[in-house]
Amino acid sequence: MADTKKVFNSLFLCAIKLLRVYPIIGELPVTSIDTGLVLEVLQQPVDTPKGKAPFWNSKAETAGRVRGRMVCLAQQQMHLVIIA
What we know:
Blueprint: H1 2-18, H2 22-25, H3 35-43, E1 45-48, E2 51-54, H4 55-58, H5 60-78
Antiparallel strand pairs: 1-2
């Protein structure tokens, strides 16, 4: 089980670096990540063909996956849900 958890955490860290999460959350401990930080990630402006738009609105599917991964990690690490 420990190896599976390490692999999951490594993959998650790779994904969040690519999905604009790392610049906001960085290497904070999971216990420090709250709803406000999750919302900051999802609401950050990203480039679109029409200019800047919030991540959640412009890339809804990707943002939903990021949110889901963050919640999954929180549940695994702390056994609670960040956002319902």
